Amino acid sequence: MIMISNKKGLRALSPLFLLLALIVIIIVMSLSGTTIDGKSVPVMPLTVAFLIASIYAVAMSGDMPLKKRIDTYSKGAGASDLLLMLWIYVLAGAFAASAKAIGSIDTTVNLTLSVLPSNLILPGLFLAACFISISIGTSVGTVVALVPIAAGIATQTGSNIALITAIVVGGAYFGDNLSFISDTTVVATQTQHCKMSDKFRVNVMIVAPAALIILIVYAILGANVQAPTHVGEVSFIKVLPYLVVLITAICGMNVMVVLSLGIVLCGIIGLFAGDFGLFGWFLNMNTGIIGMGEMVIIAMMAGGMLGMIKRNGGIDYIIQKLTAHVNTRRGAELSIAALVSLVNICTANNTIAILTVGGISQQIGDRFEVDNRKAASILDTFSCCIQGILPYGVQILLAAGLSGQSPIDILPYLYYPFAIGIAALVAILIRYPKKYS
Predict the structure, then answer these.
(1) Which of 23, 221, 271, 375 has the greatest number of C-beta atoms within 10 Å?
(2) HSE (CB half, 13 Å, CA atoms) of 276?
């Protein structure tokens, strides 16, 4: 690996430091209760924070001509995996608006409220998100399917929308971390050369206590949820779009195809039921797509800024520093956890983070005799933890867009991603599970 000096390495990472500082300022200002027209808002919108950090990232890369810097930033903002996520944002916005226009969200909420007692709504949503995510292996698909319903339930019951949205996001990472068909599971086991079933055994021993604790927390928080005074009628034909989305996703269909089917089905039902005409349907889809605009802009600016950091050697510097002073098995496991966490912060993609450091992690593990099943579990769990709390991660941006919340509003309630990070750290420190440590 190319040796990078401290000065150059810290300079390469400085746009990220600036962004994190701005995000902290936004959180503090949000908590201070600043209001505009009676509504609590952060003094600095998240888009402005990313704009400032992006301009700085381009400006500080003085070793390249300006055109080259802009090209590098643009390539990061237009990376193929990022563009795929942006298309999902567009389709999700169109589907959510179409479903809302025909009353699909309302009737699905009514069905949920009529089935679940009010004191079990929060733990019930968490379990539903866990089941769906482990079935489909993707946190994005789970967020798309459940967040609009969760936001509707929050409105009906007078609950905190940010909290209920965060419950779905947390449950989505349960499956992202454990599912046999999750990208992170596949990459972690391949790079560490172990079986998925073996990695699952180690992983579930570490995160299952955290999941149980969080389920109990949600049961306690939901004990005082008030049942709505009136639950509307349930039109089963209008529940169909969500059922189709869930079933096709669980069957393994591509999430873009799933959303496209959902949009078409909403359109057919809405046209025959008289909820809108053809152009009314188009206008509703347009409203949903425009509603995702802020999230698309943030995602693209994040991709561009992180592309600049990678080009300037920021990720190589992190890997170089964290692998320089490893002396014990516990230290090796901690360095693997720190590596994947920091690279995840710099890439905002947990699968890419594991791919980036997987080879290095295997070398560290081989040198210090770290069990490859434990190493795979550490990579997957810490990457899901960090991805689950990044306000500029695709899942939180998508959840924020679908629920009408700010990513900063959702962040404090992401109990499960925080919990699995703590559980994995404790597992390293106390050498648990003993058989794999």
Answers:
(1) 375
(2) 20
Residue written as token pair 């703590």: 422
Q: How far apart are CA 330 and CA 374, in angstroms?
A: 11
Residue 43 DSSP label? S
- Cα separation, 218 vs 124, whole angstroms: 9
Task: Tell me how far apart the alpha carbons of residues 46 and 399 are, in angstroms, rounded to a whole number.
Answer: 15
What SS3 state is found at 268?
Answer: helix
Q: 273-276: long-range contacts (C-beta < 8 A, 24 or more apart)?
A: 273/102, 273/237, 273/238, 275/101, 275/102, 275/103, 276/101, 276/102
State the Cα–Cα distance between residues 394 and 415, nearest whole angstrom. Answer: 18
DSSP 45: -
Residue 139 contacts residue 178 (beta carbons within 8 Å): no
pLDDT of 1 strictly over 60: no
Is the pLDDT assigned to residue 344 strictly greater than 90?
yes
User: Which sign does the torsion angle of CA 317, 321, 326, 332 carry?
Assistant: negative
**Closest to 123 in 3D by CA, of 219, 208, 227, 214:** 219
The Cα 360–Cα 191 span in angstroms is 9
**How far is Cα 104 from Cα 93, in angstroms, rounded to an integer?**
14
Amino acid at the residue 86: L
Per-residue pLDDT at 220 exceeds 70 = yes
Token pair, residue 201, equals: 């055994």
The DSSP code for 393 is: S
Alpha-carbon distance 377 to 206, whole Å?
Answer: 9
Report the distance separating Cα 245 and Cα 407, nearest Å. 25
- pLDDT for res 34: 57
The distance in angstroms from the start CA to the end CA of the chain is: 29
What's the pLDDT tens digit per position in 17-34? 999 999 888 877 776 655
Q: Over 70: is that where the pLDDT of 379 sits?
A: yes
Q: Who's near 401: CB < 8 A, 6+ residues apart?
A: 89, 92, 93, 291, 292, 294, 295
Q: What is the pLDDT of residue 46?
A: 84
